[in-house]
Amino acid sequence: MRLTTKGRYAVTAMLDLALHSDQGPVSLSEISSRQHISLSYLEQLFAKLRRRGLVKSIRGPGGGYCLDKATEETFVADIIDAVDESVDATNCSGEANCQEGEVCLTHHLWSDLSDQIHTFLSGISLASLVQRSEIQQIASRQNHREADHIAMTLVE
Q: Which of 14, 33, 76, 107 has the most other CB atoms within 10 Å of its CB?
């Protein structure tokens, strides 16, 4: 079982947005720079997140994206679902055709595991992640690295 980069990047970008939401709209280029995610990929992800009502876009100078719901109301499972990602432990993508078109012996075990993972992720809000000290430390390091990069660019 794997969560693809689409789901991982969507959660990472939304967490970055939550961490910087107190500064007003956040541009995708800022998220791209901090998280090393392609800008065009972020644009695709945020189009899906916007359609699902998780983010809203602000146009014009100083524009960018804001969370459309409180961090306490935005859950990791919602983000993964919004980008059409599934956390599926079955070998048949949940189709129940694992063994020559029929259900295999362990299909229900892996299907139940998939449901448990989704339930687990449904209980983790962006607020709970933002509050974690290790996430705060990583965000601080990223912000300092970005500030140093901007300062070096201005010097050149």
A: 14
Contact indicator for 108, 63 with CB cutoff of 8 Å: no
Residue 75 and residue 125 in contact, taking contact as beta carbons nearer than 8 Å: yes
Length of the chain, in residues? 156
Contact 43, 90 (CB under 8 A): no
- Using one digit for the tens of pLDDT, what is the confidence trace for 5-27? 899 999 999 999 999 999 899 99
Q: Which residues contact 134 (CB under 8 A, 6 or more apart)?
A: none
Segment holding 66, helix H or strand E: strand 64-67
The pair phi, psi for residue 137, each rounded to 5°, is: -65, -45
56: β partners: 66
Give the residue from 14, 148, 34 showing the smallest Cα distance to 78: 14
Beta bridge partners of 38: none
pLDDT tens digits, 63-96? 999 999 999 999 999 999 999 887 888 888 878 8
